[in-house]
Amino acid sequence: MARLILLNKPYGVLSQFTGSADEETLAAYVPIAGVYPAGRLDKDSEGLLLLTDDGQLQHQIAHPSSNKKKIYQVEIEGIITDEALQLLRKGVQLNDGLTRPAQVKRIAKPAGLWDRHPPVNARLNTSWIELSLSEGRNRQVRRMTAAVGNPTLRLIRASIGPWQLEPLRPGEFKEITVNMPVSAKAKRGGTNRTNMRGRTRTKR
């Protein structure tokens, strides 16, 4: 059995348990020993961050070969054009290569969205898109939207694979117990399927 923590990481919090005296870390939100982030979420991004105490599960979630779909709700500067949407769908040329095709659509501001501190500059003309990726390059969403002329102003990760952010509020977490069966293939160094059913516990 593995522990999996689903955390709504607030803006400005590092995706690690230690930092300098003036930095806020996960230690302020996850009072559970022995769990570590499975992947990262930038300090200036918000939303779903997964943590686990199981190295195999951590690898399955975080390794690029897992191809787990990640969905982001993104507030951008300006109104994105149809041409820009098509570029994102086909793949954008970045300095580290062409991105994989993405799913993207215009959306309204997410219902029930919490305020961010500091807020996005109210004088800017902004809109929202939903972007789904199956890769995880460094600051990829921000670089992709900038490449098509719509810089990212606010970034919220809404899901990773089957795990959803809702209904967690900033700083809240939910704990899931995950069954990690050890198959004969796994014993020989292969991979095995993960049973993601289990109990949940939410901290408020």
TrEMBL record:
<dbReference type="GO" id="GO:0009982">
    <property type="term" value="F:pseudouridine synthase activity"/>
</dbReference>
<comment type="similarity">
    <text>Belongs to the pseudouridine synthase RsuA family.</text>
</comment>
<dbReference type="InterPro" id="IPR020094">
    <property type="entry name" value="TruA/RsuA/RluB/E/F_N"/>
</dbReference>
<keyword id="KW-0413">Isomerase</keyword>
<dbReference type="InterPro" id="IPR050343">
    <property type="entry name" value="RsuA_PseudoU_synthase"/>
</dbReference>
<dbReference type="Pfam" id="PF00849">
    <property type="entry name" value="PseudoU_synth_2"/>
</dbReference>
<dbReference type="InterPro" id="IPR006145">
    <property type="entry name" value="PsdUridine_synth_RsuA/RluA"/>
</dbReference>
<dbReference type="GO" id="GO:0006364">
    <property type="term" value="P:rRNA processing"/>
</dbReference>
<feature type="region of interest" description="Disordered">
    <location>
        <begin position="184"/>
        <end position="204"/>
    </location>
</feature>
<dbReference type="InterPro" id="IPR018496">
    <property type="entry name" value="PsdUridine_synth_RsuA/RluB_CS"/>
</dbReference>
<dbReference type="InterPro" id="IPR042092">
    <property type="entry name" value="PsdUridine_s_RsuA/RluB/E/F_cat"/>
</dbReference>
<protein>
    <recommendedName>
        <fullName>Pseudouridine synthase</fullName>
        <ecNumber>5.4.99.-</ecNumber>
    </recommendedName>
</protein>
<dbReference type="InterPro" id="IPR000748">
    <property type="entry name" value="PsdUridine_synth_RsuA/RluB/E/F"/>
</dbReference>
<dbReference type="GO" id="GO:0140098">
    <property type="term" value="F:catalytic activity, acting on RNA"/>
</dbReference>
<dbReference type="GO" id="GO:0001522">
    <property type="term" value="P:pseudouridine synthesis"/>
</dbReference>
<dbReference type="GO" id="GO:0003723">
    <property type="term" value="F:RNA binding"/>
</dbReference>
<feature type="compositionally biased region" description="Basic residues">
    <location>
        <begin position="185"/>
        <end position="204"/>
    </location>
</feature>
<feature type="domain" description="Pseudouridine synthase RsuA/RluA-like">
    <location>
        <begin position="4"/>
        <end position="147"/>
    </location>
</feature>
<dbReference type="InterPro" id="IPR020103">
    <property type="entry name" value="PsdUridine_synth_cat_dom_sf"/>
</dbReference>
